[in-house]
Amino acid sequence: MSEQTTSSRGRREAWEWIRALGIAIILAFLIRTFLFAPFVVDGQSMETTLHNGEKLVVNKAIYLLSQPQRGDIIVFHAEPTRDYIKRVIAVAGDTIEMKNDQLYLNGKQADEPYLAEKRKEAKQKGVPLTEDFGPITIPDGQIFVMGDNRLNSRDSRAIGPVDVDTVVGRAELVFWPFGELRVTR
């Protein structure tokens, strides 16, 4: 085989590798920008559902097709340089109220099974898990969010209802630490 043929084949092979790498980088960028993104839980506001330092996959595309629903765990832009992760408690048009540590949604008692462990802790301390508030009617284009660790959460009780336009996506999966791999619902 001639030296020129070997050189030509080497250039073609190098070009194929560069092209494949370029396509992979572009696909990774598009997936991260439009479909899924990693998110690191910062703080204890969602305990016992999510824990500080856990890494999640956030579905960014889901809300292109629908609106956030009650019970969804979402990531949203709360501050210019900081995103929060909270649970959607109420959506536009809902009226919510907290009385005697019980959530009322549109006048009916709401079940919040994800709070069982934190309710026990609050009861042992002799304090309510969630202070009374409301009634509050959620305006169009907004949602009311709260952390599952109600005694340690900066959420809609302090910052008000959240604009749906600030929602990054829905938390889908805890992928780190590997031993804690699970769906977030």
UniProtKB/TrEMBL annotation:
It is a single-pass type II membrane protein. The lineage of its organism: Bacteria, Bacillati, Bacillota, Bacilli, Bacillales. This is Signal peptidase I. It comes from the Bacteria. GO terms for cellular component: plasma membrane. Pfam families: Peptidase_S26 (PF10502). It comes from Brevibacillus fulvus. Belongs to the peptidase S26 family. Its EC number is 3.4.21.89. CDD domains: S26_SPase_I. Its main location: membrane. The keyword Endoplasmic reticulum does not apply. It is an enzyme of class 3 (hydrolase). The active site is at 45, 86. Keywords: Cell membrane, Hydrolase, Membrane, Protease, Transmembrane, Transmembrane helix. NCBIfam families: sigpep_I_bact. It catalyses: Cleavage of hydrophobic, N-terminal signal or leader sequences from secreted and periplasmic proteins. The chain crosses the membrane at residues 20-41.
